[in-house]
Amino acid sequence: MHSPRNILVLPGSASPLAPAVTSAYETIVNEAARRAVKLRLLVYPGQRLGEGGRLSYRTALKAAQEACEAERPDWIVGISLGTIVALGLACESPRLMRNCSGMVLWGYYGSETLQSRWGNESLQRASARLHALKLRTQFASDYFAVHPHPEGMIPKAACSMRLARGSVDELNSLAELERLAAMHTAAQPDTRCEVIEVPNAGHLPCSPGCAPNLSRDCLMALFQPFARPLKPS
């Protein structure tokens, strides 16, 4: 398989413009430039100061559908919330995925995490307040109510994918990703599903302040095509 040449990055719920995470996304954008690869980093509704809009699964998916229509990416990278948006593209808009040779889902989280982290109104209000004050994201009122269960989406996604995680990510486990990969392989035998864990990485790839070697391993997980073996250090 050829290396990706046209990448769409679907970020997490924290705006990629927020100072707390900007450097991580800049590292990804710079790597694309180093590889002479076209890359579009999507910013969802509700993630730009002063532009209005609110973030929900539906508004994020609509923005991703419009980006796919315009860009025709051959590779999609979903990070955190972006993993669910990427799965939504594969399940609801397969026509837009025709040019796409695969996707990388980094920082996936499932129904158990949704329930344990944001399962009541108090937790949801606290998360919305954190995002508004520090992460430059305004949630829609139904952000938590309209949040699909990704376990049901994985078997329906008729595309090759890599499930990637950092070894210190508390929102998922290696065993969980391996179980999901088995589900996908059984349901979509004509596609490929890989699992990779990057030692010492967290929920966000190339997180601020990470060592160069760690950043390199994260970038390999995001950019490396399926045909070549992954060789994290």
Please tally the β strands and state the result. 6
In the residues, how many domains can be counted? 1
Structural class: alpha/beta
Q: Mean pLDDT across all residues, rounded?
A: 93
In whole angstroms, how far apart are the ends? 22 Å
Name the strands of the widest sheet in spatial order.
2-1-3-4-5-6
Query: Based on CA inertia axes, which overall geometry fits?
Result: globular
| CATH topology description | Rossmann fold
- What are the low-pLDDT stretches, counting only 5+ consecutive residues below 50? none
CATH architecture, by name, is 3-Layer(aba) Sandwich
CATH superfamily: Alpha/Beta hydrolase fold, catalytic domain
- Rounded to an integer in angstroms, the radius of gyration calculated over CA atoms is 16 Å
Strand content: 5-15%
SSE order: EHEHEHEHHEHEH
The CATH class:
Alpha Beta
Q: Count of DSSP helices?
A: 7
Describe the fold and architecture.
- With 233 residues, the chain is of the alpha/beta class.
- The chain has a single domain, classed as Rossmann fold, CATH 3.40.50.1820.
- It has helices at 22-34, 57-71, 81-92, 111-118, 121-134, 174-187, 212-223, and strands at 6-10, 38-41, 75-79, 103-106, 161-166, 193-198.
- The protein starts with 5 loop residues before the first strand and ends in a 10-residue tail after the last helix.
